[in-house]
Amino acid sequence: MLTGSKIVPMIRVRGVSKRYRVGKLATTLKESLVGWLSGTPSADWLWALRDVSLSVNAGEAVGIVGHNGAGKSTFLRLLARVSKPTVGTIETKGRMAALLELGAGFHPDLTGRENIFLNGTLLGLTRKEISKRFDEIVAFSEVERFIDTPVKHFSRGMTLRLSFAIAAYVNCDLLLVDEVLSVGDARFAEKCLIRMQRLRDQGMTIVLTSHNLQTVVDFCSRAVLFRGGSLIADGQPEEIVNLYSNKSSHSEAIDRQQALRRGAWV
Amino acid sequence: MIEHWRRLVDARDLLYTWTIRELKVRYAGSLLGLAWALLYPLALLLVSMVMFAWFLRVPTAGVPAALFLYCGLVPWLFSSGTIQNSAFALFANLQLVKNASFPREVLPLGTVLVGVVDLTVSAVLLAALVAYYRRPVGSTLLLVPVLLIIQSMLTLAICLFVSASLVFYRDVRFLVPIGMQLWLYLSPVFYPIDLVPQRDRFWYLLNPFAELIDAYRRVILFRTWPEWEPLAWTAVVSVVALVASYMHFKRVEWEFADRI
Predict the structure, then answer these.
(1) DSSP-based three-state secondary structure for A154
(2) Is the pLDDT assigned to residue A2 strictly greater than 50?
(3) Contact by Cβ (8 Å): A173, A93
(4) What are the pLDDT digits (tens) for B228-239?
């Protein structure tokens, strides 16, 4: 299916697994000493991701679906380089912006303006670049009147809008969005979606997780399904969403998918 | 190492913004604001005057006690204040560490830069005291920037180590104040280095801070050059400590986001 345009891989994930410690963590010297002396491990391990491989090309919009705890957010965190895989490698190309949690970089005592600069530099922008986009960010977030008010006086919706607006104007090559569109009112979610469609049409690569399956179908060019830390299906959004929501024929469909994938690899 | 450095240089705007944020947040809501950067060392000076000049009559080699004590307090407060604040640089911002990708050393580095701002403010008072007591100064002042660089490297080395350690071991929160207290009395802040018996001097000067404080006094108050051998030792210790601490920091920084 070569269309003549060059295919540029933006994300290449190979055999990635991620292990977390669960249970009681040794957070004091005494606990880790006791654990070490008695030879008992201080915590159990949980594999949040198992052997995930995925390749995303430039211009693709990939939706990740799956139940809570399926590993979607962990996967995005690894892509965003917040955390490192236990096994496997991740390569990404170009400038990346990640929106993992709304308002994570905001400080309540600082004004909206100050927080835009803080958040923007956290996303890798220079202060000059932020100044250039400042008006657009403010206009998009619709908080003009409060831009010099400490964000502790912002409503949750305003914080959300500002937070999204900054990421939406980073001008990156790769945008990672975790479960953001399902928060806030419908009108703003719609606005975010339109903005993201525009970015996608300009050639930006986008990876998002969403519980809103309609968003995935409407917006994404491709979807993947996570279950129990594994990537179990990869394909057209409609197909994947059906697979995910259609519980009765769940396992059957998955078998078919996996057979397909095996077939594709052999 | 070069790769780490390049990423840090790329993040210089973040470092700047973060430092401004730390300054603003620190003084936000306090009535006196940045004046505290002056009032705090001043208050400590008064307390130490009562203790060491009035009660204990520590010899000050002919220099007014206020000047002598303050000249030790200013550099000491820079390091001890910065180290105690930086302990929480990562711990207090784990939410950020968990959700954004940036060179983590920006956070403790920002604390050190805030310390530099405080140091500048308290140094103005030192200059005022020197002028007030009509203390002559000379070309030895040229060494002050060199001493500041050595001290900053040593301080940053400790800050990086302490901030990373607190993420893994909450005990550090209690160990740091104890350690700083001990270190204060092992350094010639409230007394001249001459009070240390000659036969113990070698061990005493293994503490890189001892030589630093003494050197500041020599070049600012006495117009004499410091003893070069212990100063060279201090410089070597600082550089080695900084490199080792930074490498350790970069090795464990990936675990910060997973350890909450």
Answers:
(1) coil
(2) no
(3) yes
(4) 999 999 999 999
Neighbours of A262 (CB within 10 A): 9
* A:B CB pairs within 8 Å: 82
Check: CB of residue A130 under 8 Å from CB of residue A120. Answer: yes
CA contacts within 13 A on the Cβ side of B179: 15
- Return d(Cα B183, Cα B80) in angstroms, integer: 9
pTM of this structure: 0.88
Q: For the sheet with A87-92, list strands across it.
A: A44-57, A9-22, A87-92
Mean pLDDT of A253-263: 55
User: Which residue of chain A comes nearest to B256, CA vs CA?
Assistant: A83
Cross-chain Cβ contact A121/B13 below 8 Å: yes
Encode pLDDT of A140-199 as tens digits: 999 999 999 999 999 888 888 899 899 889 889 999 998 876 666 788 888 888 999 999
Higher-scoring residue by pLDDT: B79, B25: B79
Write the DSSP string, B73-107.
HHHHHHHHHHHHHHTTTTGGGHHHHHH--S-TTHH
Q: What are phi and psi of A179, to 5 degrees?
A: 50, 40
Q: State the pLDDT at residue A76.
A: 94
| Mean pLDDT lowest among A19-23, A259-263, B225-229 | A259-263
Which residues does chain A have within 8 Å of residue B25's beta carbon, measured at their own beta carbons? Answer: 107, 109-110
d(CA B61, CA A169): 63
Ramachandran angles phi, psi of B11, nearest 5°: -95, 20
Residues 6+ apart with CB under 8 A from A36: none
CA A143 to chain CA centroid, Å, is 25
B257 contacts in chain A (CB < 8 Å) = 77, 82-83
Token pair, residue A13, equals 């994930």
